[in-house]
Design a protein that fits this description.
Elements: E1 4-8, H1 13-24, E2 30-35, E3 47-51, H2 57-67, E4 73-76, H3 97-118, E5 128-133, H4 149-172, E6 176-182, E7 185-186, E8 203-204, H5 206-218, E9 228-230
Parallel strand pairs: 1-2, 1-4, 2-3, 4-5, 5-6, 6-9, 7-8
Protein name: SDR family NAD(P)-dependent oxidoreductase
Length: 238
Amino acid sequence: MVRRAVVIGSGGGIGAALARRLAASAGFDMVHALSRHPPPNEGPGPLRPGYIDIGAPDSIAAAAAAIGGPLELVLIATGLLHEGEHRPERALKALDAAWLAGQFQINAIGPALVLRHFAPLLAGDRRAIIAALSARVGSISDNRLGGWYGYRASKAALNMIVRTAAIELARVRPAAICVGLHPGTVDTGLSRPFRSGVPAARRFTPEAAADRLLRVLDGLDARATGRCFAWDGSEVPP
């Protein structure tokens, strides 16, 4: 049996670290590392670079068709918090329709379509996982500071998509696990402008974040499906 994993968003800091960790482990024979700018295939070894654009539905469908199943692990390591002149909105007056739509496209719609095309490829006769990087700020009950409208709302939408997909998936693949993951504050381009107030002990390198997230996944069983877990294994409230 060939054990295969897929990392979507392997061009980002956390995604790249996850792909490297999985490729270096003994748990997988093949790791498909998908991104918009995949590097050339380096030859022998389990890492298999490939193309995907989380913002392009046809690209997601084509990547799933090219890879096929069965898969033991699918990780969606994509996200959009800021870009160019756009920063997280601190007030209603800062809301912009196009920017909101763009955040929903990358943070919620793209992952939803990954679930559509990749969840059916999960192994049906054994434990298999599909997980998406979410964020604690996507928790509605934990929102006490306000602000960051588009990012909060799109990650909250992602959490609902994960929950709903988990219910459907459990009917046909009862051993499957579908969860969200909160990686904490990681030293990547996404969080770098906003980490000055975070204590050093709570800021992680991409490699440390990848190790923590993979340990969390290793400890889950089918009872965890549909929920969101932080880097330390605690559950993020809905």
